[in-house]
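Sat 14:20. Reprocessing the chain from the morning session after the first attempt stalled halfway. Input below, unchanged.
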Amino acid sequence: MISKTLYVTNKLGVHARPAGLIVDITGQAKSDVTIIHDNQKANAKSILNVMMLAIPPGSHVEFEIDGEDEEEVMKLLERLFHENFHEESN
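Finished this time. Tokens:
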């Protein structure tokens, strides 16, 4: 299992479109993926679970990934967060 904290740097936080992009990555994964924000854990393969965390801009989230493709999944998530979910940065 690997875990890493990522920072939300886009203007709107994890709203519907970024949540969908996260699920696009995690939904294809063979690994189990958990997203944690404010001590709340959610299945990162479920768009409803990700959106229910209501992650605002400037937040940090932790991903716990456990499975055979965990490193590749983490790299994809890191890139997505680094690119501000393909939105303009602040």
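The chain has one domain: 2-86.
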